[in-house]
């Protein structure tokens, strides 16, 4: 069964025709725009594919499908999706605006790492939202990871982050994942707070990854919301959530090319095992069919 975000449904009729016609190009353009590739990438892809078809003198839509796969893989190949987790403990800072599924993603990431034989501790440093601490505790339990909670209400987030890294070192955890606030009561101070958290952590251990969580269903608007993090927080990788609920697979390429930051993880469902590493070849195969 095709993933809900794939293009296979939209392209099915087009690739079953006998020859490539102008209608084929119109349908392909519509499918790419609908999938949230954005007008610029769509135009570039159509232009490149038209040139390929003319140069190779093909008229079979099945050849066009293969060429589309190749073009997409070529563009994805410009980014390295590998998580850099060689340090011990490997400290992962997770950031993002509220509502994108950040805390849930941390639980799934903890599960992903535990499933791959790693010992994990998570730190509930989003101390401005009591529900976040409680929610993260539930996910940590389900994931089989340890958790460091605030010792008191309203505790300084940087001190919780410090204690989490401290616990990782003391108990020999290979992986340390730290939640952060998506907003503060004083909004202007959010990036300053993240900067403080980073400085405190780096006194103990290098930060392996700073992952920004984005919601695929918000599309380009989500990127606009997250630009402050991209500009200020030293983001090393993106995590795209909620791909299961939309046909927005093109957002993956659009967001990488707009930000220059690689997608490293994707969430494709609600279950705890529904977060996976991003593999461009597999993704394109699912996307195009």
What is the count of DSSP helices, taking H or I runs of 4+ residues?
11
Beta strand %: 5-15%
Overall average pLDDT:
86
| Global structural class | alpha/beta
| Major sheet strand order | 3-2-4-1-5-6-7-8
Unreliable sequence segments? none
Give the % helix.
Answer: 40-55%
Distance between the termini: 11 Å
Radius of gyration from CA coordinates: 21 Å
Number of strands: 8
**Rough shape?**
elongated
Largest pleated sheet: 8 strands, mixed
SSE string, helices as H and strands as E: HHHHEHEHEHEHEHEHEEH
Overall description:
The protein is α/β, with parallel strands linked by helices and 289 residues long. The protein has eleven helices and eight strands. The protein has helices at 8-15, 22-34, 39-56, 61-76, 102-115, 130-143, 157-171, 190-202, 219-232, 251-259, 280-288; strands spanning 90-95, 120-124, 146-148, 175-179, 207-215, 237-241, 263-267, 275-277. Strands 3-2-4-1-5-6-7-8 form an eight-stranded mixed β-sheet, sandwiched between helices. A hairpin with a 7-residue loop joins strand 7 and strand 8 (275-277). Helix 2 packs antiparallel against helix 3, helix 4 (61-76) packs antiparallel against helix 11 and helix 5 (102-115) runs parallel beside helix 6. The chain is elongated and about 65 Å long.
């Amino acid at each position: 069964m095709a993933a809900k975000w794939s293009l296979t449904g939209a392209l099915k009729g087009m690739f079953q025709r006998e020859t490539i016609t102008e209608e084929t190009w119109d349908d392909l353009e519509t499918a790419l725009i609908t999938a949230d590739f954005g007008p610029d990438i769509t135009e570039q892809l159509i232009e490149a594919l038209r040139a390929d078809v003319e140069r190779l003198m093909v008229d079979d839509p099945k050849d066009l499908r293969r060429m589309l796969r190749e073009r997409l893989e070529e563009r994805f190949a410009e980014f390295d999706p590998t998580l850099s987790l060689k340090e011990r403990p490997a400290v992962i800072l997770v950031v993002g605006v509220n509502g994108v599924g950040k805390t849930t993603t941390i639980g799934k990431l903890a599960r992903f790492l535990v499933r791959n034989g790693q010992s994990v501790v998570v730190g509930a440093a989003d101390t401005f939202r009591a529900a976040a601490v409680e929610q993260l505790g539930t996910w940590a339990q389900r994931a089989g990871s340890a958790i460091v909670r605030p010792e008191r209400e309203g505790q300084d987030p940087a001190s919780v982050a410090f204690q989490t890294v401290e616990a990782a070192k003391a108990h020999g955890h290979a992986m340390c994942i730290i939640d952060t606030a998506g907003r503060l009561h004083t909004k202007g101070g959010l990036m300053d707070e993240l900067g403080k958290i980073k400085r405190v952590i780096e006194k103990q251990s290098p930060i392996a990854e700073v992952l920004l969580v984005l919601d695929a269903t918000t599309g380009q608007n989500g990127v606009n919301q997250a630009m402050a993090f991209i500009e200020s927080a030293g983001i090393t990788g993106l995590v795209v959530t909620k791909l299961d609920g939309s046909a927005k697979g093109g957002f993956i390429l659009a967001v990488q090319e707009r930000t220059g930051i690689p997608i490293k993880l994707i969430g494709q469902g609600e279950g705890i095992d529904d977060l996976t590493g991003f593999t461009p070849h597999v993704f394109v195969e699912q996307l195009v069919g």
